[in-house]
Specification:
By secondary structure, the chain is an alpha/beta fold. It contains ten helices and 13 strands. It has two domains: 120 residues, D-Maltodextrin-Binding Protein, domain 2 (3-Layer(aba) Sandwich); 128 residues, Periplasmic binding protein-like II (D-Maltodextrin-Binding Protein, domain 2), CATH 3.40.190. The strands form four sheets. A five-stranded mixed sheet has the order 10-9-11-8-12, with helices on both faces. Strands 5-1-6 form a three-stranded parallel sheet.
Amino acid sequence: MPAFRAAIVAIIIGLAAFTGAGAQNLPVHVDPGARDDMLDAIAIPALRFLTTADFPPFNYSDAGGRLVGFNIDVADAICARLGARCTIQAWPWDRVQDALAENQGDALIAGLDMAGEAGSRFDFSRIYLQLPAKFVVSRANLPSFNPQNLAGTLAVREGSAHAQLAERMLPRTTIAGYDSEFAALDAVASGEADVYFGDGARAAFWLNDHPQCCDFVGESYFRPDLFGEGFAVAVPKGLDNVRVAINWALTRLQREGQLDEIYLRWFPLGFY
């Protein structure tokens, strides 16, 4: 069975048994049983993180111009666990990778895709967050949702892997592309679209502000080959002391429950 068809069959089987919006599980961000890295924390007295300010809810500027987001809190927690002085500087997306390569910072935390050019250009920490796909529908349509016979309009982010999967596997469904996940979700809220399919993390962030409108339906669907392997911190090639220190901190933050606290702070309506 081709990979795409296997994926959609798994989605349909999982959703066919769904009877309502269920509780979400906490993710295991980092394997708490991972082998400990040897670390001399004194060797990392400071960390210079780079990020961007245009990727809500992970790293962005709030209404007051303050840099906030899930990734920002993770970076702060890494520095605190290491006892290192921490700076976090925002760069434009089209310049931030070059800034890291030119040693303008020690690490980049901005949801950088580990595949392709970036994977050959940088080293990466352990993955600290995976990004599953989710369906979202209006609360009024929850009881009648049937993935085996989707009717109406399915809202997706134009050009996303989720859109490509839907177009291949749901040829009889009307698929509407939008500029962003948030715009696609707004279309469901307004009644312009009936169902959303896409990134679960951004949907969870949006749902926090629309609790009476809509809800997740079904399970979380992990396809690293389509939706990316997840979030990891990028470091310049060969900067092993920084990569090892970040891994050491992430493992301990997982064991101590601090990554869970950050996750729930930003995603009280979980997407796992």
